């Protein structure tokens, strides 16, 4: 598997975690979420807008997040996303799962790379 393909496959699995974490701190729109991920990761993580929107639509369908519109400027409307209470609970579950998997992978890598 090509390195960029495997990297993208891995990132797809954590996109929901990143989106929900951002929304826990502030309501955001999709482009802003993409930029926050890129900036906060010191540009080590770059997730496509298509991947962000796919995850957002899934989270919204499952009622973990909701959307509302806000007028920006004279005519432009921007769609913001908001974390709902059940989304916060889902985020806690995702965070625990991520931490367990991350710790387990680290332990394996440390053990086998000695």
List keywords for this structure.
single chain, 114 residues, Arc Repressor Mutant, subunit A, 4 helices, elongated
Protein described:
The protein contains four helices and two strands; from the N terminus they run αααββα. It is of the alpha+beta class and 114 residues long. α1 packs across α3, α1 packs across α4 and α2 crosses α3. The longest helix is centred in the last third of the chain and has 28 residues, at 85-112. The protein is elongated and about 60 Å long.
- Number of individual domains: 1
Report the order of strands and helices: HHHEEH
Provide a count of the helices: 4
Rg estimate, integer Å: 16 Å
Largest sheet, strands/sense/barrel: 2 strands, antiparallel
Q: What's the total number of strands?
A: 2
CATH superfamily: Winged helix-like DNA-binding domain superfamily/Winged helix DNA-binding domain
CATH architecture call? Orthogonal Bundle
Organism: Eubacterium ramulus ATCC 29099
Domain Transcription regulator PadR N-terminal: 19-92
InterPro entries: Metal_resp_DNA-bind_regulator (IPR052509), Tscrpt_reg_PadR_N (IPR005149), WH-like_DNA-bd_sf (IPR036388), WH_DNA-bd_sf (IPR036390)
Protein name: Transcriptional regulator, PadR family
